[in-house]
UniProtKB/TrEMBL annotation:
Disordered: annotated span: 75-111
Protein name: Uncharacterized protein
Source organism of this protein record: Halogeometricum limi
Composition skew (Basic and acidic residues), residue ranges: 75-99
Domain DUF7552, residue spans: 5-78
Domain (DUF7551): residue spans on this chain: 116-300
Length: 304
């Protein structure tokens, strides 16, 4: 099963990593550090080479879902900085080429878009793994059937990845109950690389979406807490949100997944979406007691 394989490979890479290690795995052509080795360092060149090999296997497995997943020529370097940060390129004496399965056969021509592509694949992989492990293979199959149809006609990799997320939101909404959606996102959030939460979980999740290119700006209101109802609400405004409405509903699960990743005491239970002139206004409601409503996508309400 691909999902299990992805999870096991990622855990293997993490077991090889050391926070203060001097070696990193990156693309020898672009300097990028793709998943699952992104953010990891390794104590020795040998361990880093093992991680590079595992990363090749991981991306080959993930490519079964998306044949257009970028190929990287993975190399091991000591304290390398990504190419483009200072214009320098690692010397041959300071790196060992270590191509893994499915790696190094193609240069990603549009590396400037890779943060969006990598984010979409990271989110999709976490959800796919969880669907596999939770017995929802029918949902996984339905998403991929739609996605492969789109892949035959959509050439732009950014657009195709966004279509993947949009299709996934539709299938999750139609095939899973709100309670099942909440359980799915709770588990999928644990499969994403852990990060240190700084400040409000909603703002942290939105900052990630902005950094990865899913929106160009956002603003958040202060949280409003209703002690009688046991709820906490946050109003959010999104500018240039990259995901498009489907059937009168707005895909929101990447944001939901990000909030679940950082929030435990006040689970996100419902969202409202209103179209405004320059984007979207969302109301996110956190509740400790209420059952969740739809979380993958939400109905678009008329502006008041």
């Amino acid at each position: 099963m691909v999902g299990t394989t992805l999870a096991e490979i990622r855990q293997h890479v993490e077991s090889l990593a050391s926070p203060d290690g001097p070696y990193v795995v990156h693309c020898g052509r672009t300097g990028e550090r793709p998943i699952p080795t992104a953010g990891n360092r390794f104590e020795s060149r040998t361990l880093a080479e093992r991680a590079a090999s595992a990363a090749g296997q991981y991306r080959a497995a993930l490519r079964r879902y998306d044949p257009r997943l970028p190929h990287y020529d993975l190399v091991v370097s000591r304290d390398v900085e990504p190419r483009g940060s200072d214009g320098r390129e690692s010397s041959d004496s300071d790196r060992d080429r270590h191509p893994g399965p499915g790696v190094g056969t193609e240069l990603e021509e549009r590396s400037q878009h890779s943060p969006l592509v990598e984010f979409c694949h990271r989110v999709a992989a976490a959800v796919f793994e969880t669907l596999c492990d939770s017995g929802h293979r029918d949902v996984e199959t339905a998403v991929m059937d739609v996605y492969f149809e789109l892949a035959e006609t959509v050439d732009d990799p950014d657009t195709l990845c966004l279509c993947l997320l949009e299709s996934m939101a539709v299938e999750l909404d139609q095939r899973l109950t709100p309670v099942e959606q909440a359980a799915l996102f709770t588990e999928a959030a644990t499969r994403l690389s852990p990060t240190e939460s700084v400040g409000d979980p909603v703002s942290t999740a939105l900052a990630t979406l902005e950094e990865r290119g899913l929106l160009s700006g956002y603003s958040c209101s202060p949280s409003l807490v209703d002690l009688d109802d046991g709820t906490r609400a946050v109003d959010v405004r999104l500018t240039n949100y990259a995901l498009s409405p489907r059937n009168g509903r707005l895909p929101v699960f990447p944001l939901v997944l990000g909030v679940y990743r950082h929030e435990s005491e006040w689970p996100l239970s419902s969202l409202r979406a209103v179209a405004v002139a320059d984007g979207w206004e969302l109301t996110l409601v956190h509740s400790r007691d209420s059952d969740p409503t739809d979380l993958a996508s939400v109905p678009i309400e008329p502006e008041a």
